[in-house]
Design goal:
Blueprint (H helix, E strand, L loop, with lengths): L2 E10 L2 E11 L4 E6 L5 H8 L7 E6 L2 E2 L5 H8 L2 E5 L10 H11 L4 H14 L15 H13 L5 E5 L7 H18 L2 E6 L2 H7 L2 E6 L2 E7 H6 L4 H13 L3 E3 L7 E6 L7 H9 L2 E12 L2 E11 L2 H13 L3 E4 L4
Parallel strand pairs: 3-8, 3-9, 6-7, 7-8
Antiparallel strand pairs: 1-2, 1-4, 4-5, 9-10, 11-13, 12-14, 12-15, 13-14
Helix pairs in contact: 3-4, 3-5, 4-5, 5-6, 10-11
The structure holds adenosine-5'-triphosphate and magnesium ion.
Length: 332
């Protein structure tokens, strides 16, 4: 199901939590929405999932407008949606199977159907045989698996994940993201992934929108955004990923005025040598690495270029002419 947002706005008093957001979230994709704390991510999800009504603007699922539905239709339309959260929101009074069965019981489905579907869902999320487990005995990753199974119980077409992996360690995060991707393909879902972590976007999403102070400041294919980010907020997210994560090695905290990004086949070419010998520029490389983004290799190099501004200018121009993305740090 395609989701289309047109000029959405939502304010709380003086605070514009969501400010003129227009987006198309294609069907059958994992779509990331990344932003810092307070950027408006959860508010946006509440508007898109019909939990909250926008002050202005429209929400469409395929071609159906859904932001202004009467209550009876709203309930029917919400059956197309599954949601999972950072805190899992499971019933501790019910075991794993009881949690998964709950939305089907609400819809008065046939008991035998519920039993069979619950078994299927437990298997789908890798918890076969664990239906009897009390929630308190499950790990965080297993709780999120139960929450995913419950979200899928009524065969939704859209799955909203609001910081679904934020409470999990990196390894569990990767396994949950892999599960979500697998389920997305299997069930042709539209997955909307809300996060403040660029590694979630890198590892799970096809496209991403960057939200800042209630506005979308950048949007596109994840591999394009990683190869040539434009907005400072996006660059910020990428640089925290670059220096913290294992995929890039930084051997000097100092310097690093230029960030170079190489895409695809360019990661194999001796571009730096070519630029150095033809411009006389010298490179003092501070950090480098390769990331695999959506099946594409993107090389990142953080470097100083000398010996003087003139040589650096020539080198940057030549790099850009060869299709290398070059970002210059703000003056410090
Ligand atoms: N019901 C509400 N009443 C008043 N203000 C609200 C309400 N909901 C959200 N806000 C404010 O709107 C802004 C956006 O909040 P929101 O929860 O959407 O951010 P977020 O991007 O999800 O942040 P986080 O990453 O911390 O979850 C914040 O300044 C928040 O305080
Ligand atoms: Mg939030």
């Amino acid at each position: 199901m395609e989701i289309r947002l047109r000029n959405l706005r939502r304010s709380y008093g003086q605070l514009h939590a969501v400010e003129d957001v227009s987006l198309t979230i294609p069907s059958n994709t994992v779509y990331g929405i990344i932003g810092k704390s307070g950027a408006g991510k959860s508010t946006l999800v509440r508007l898109v999932s019909m939990l909250e009504v926008p002050d202005q603007g429209e929400v469409y699922y395929d071609d159906k407008r859904v932001d202004n539905l009467p209550k009876s239709e709203l309930i029917a339309e919400r059956r197309h949606i599954g949601m999972i959260f950072q805190t899992f929101n499971l019933f501790s009074s019910r075991n794993a199977a009881g949690n998964i069965a709950y939305p089907m019981e609400i819809c008065h489905m046939d008991k035998e159907h519920i039993r069979r579907r619950t078994e299927e869902l437990l298997e789908l999320v890798g918890l076969q045989g664990r239906g009897d487990a009390p929630i308190s005995t499950l790990s965080g990753g297993q709780k999120q698996r139960v929450a995913i199974a419950r979200a899928l119980a009524t065969d939704p077409e859209i799955l909203f994940c609001d910081e679904a992996t934020s409470a999990l360690d990196p390894q569990t995060t990767r396994s949950i993201l892999a599960l979500i991707k697998e389920i997305q393909k299997k069930m042709n879902l539209t997955v909307v992934m809300i996060t403040h972590q660029m590694e979630v976007v890198r590892d799970a999403c096809d496209r991403v929108a960057v939200l800042d102070s209630g506005r979308i400041v950048e949007e596109g294919r994840v591999s394009d955004i990683f190869a040539s980010p434009r907005h400072p907020v996006t660059k910020d997210f990428l640089s925290s990923l670059a220096t913290v994560r294992e995929s890039i090695v930084r051997w000097s905290k100092e310097g690093g005025h230029y960030t170079l990004r190489f895409r695809g086949s360019k990661t194999d070419e001796p571009i730096i040598s070519a630029v150095s010998s033809s411009t006389g520029a010298v490179f003092n490389i501070r950090a480098a690495g390769v990331q695999n983004v959506d099946g594409e290799e993107i090389g990142v190099m953080i470097t100083d270029i000398g010996p003087d501004a003139e040589a650096a200018g020539k080198a940057v121009a030549m790099l850009r002419s060869k299709g290398v993305y070059v970002d210059e740090a703000e003056e410090v």
